[in-house]
Structure formats: structure tokens, C-alpha cells
User: Which sequence fits this backbone?
């Protein structure tokens, strides 16, 4: 009984993790688009893009450790 619950929990948290990764990827892409549209060099836009990028790659690294498969 306990082993089946563990697999169910892993599957549930993997789904949440994948949803979070997709959300952070979308935020990163939006930050890139905003930075491309700006004519001047804006440090705030660059900082937001780098922050979104680092969050996404941190989650990507965590997904590799957890053996989460993205579909």
C-alpha cells in the first residue's frame, strides 16, 4: 500500500514540476522578446531576462536529477 502511494505522489509532483518548467520557459521567452523590442540598453530588462533564464535552467537541472520527462 505504501509503495503505490509513493509512485502516485511522484507522478503528481512531476506533473506540477513540468507545468512550472513550462511557465518559467514562457516567462523567459517573454523577457527575451521585451528585451529585443527595446531600443536602448535597459538594465532592468536585462536583469529580468537573466533572472528568468537562471530560474528556468535551475529547474531544468533539477529535472535531470529527478529523471522527469518533458512531453
Assistant:
Amino acid at each position: 500500500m505504501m509503495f503505490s502511494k509513493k509512485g502516485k505522489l511522484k507522478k503528481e509532483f512531476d506533473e506540477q514540476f513540468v507545468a512550472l518548467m513550462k511557465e518559467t520557459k514562457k516567462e523567459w521567452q517573454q523577457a527575451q522578446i521585451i528585451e529585443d523590442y527595446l531600443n536602448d540598453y535597459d538594465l532592468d530588462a536585462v536583469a529580468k531576462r537573466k533572472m528568468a533564464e537562471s530560474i528556468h535552467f535551475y529547474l531544468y537541472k533539477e529535472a535531470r536529477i529527478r529523471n522527469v520527462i518533458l512531453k
Observations:
- The longest helix spans residues 2-37.
- The mean pLDDT is 89.
- Residues 14 and 66 are 9 Å apart (CA to CA).
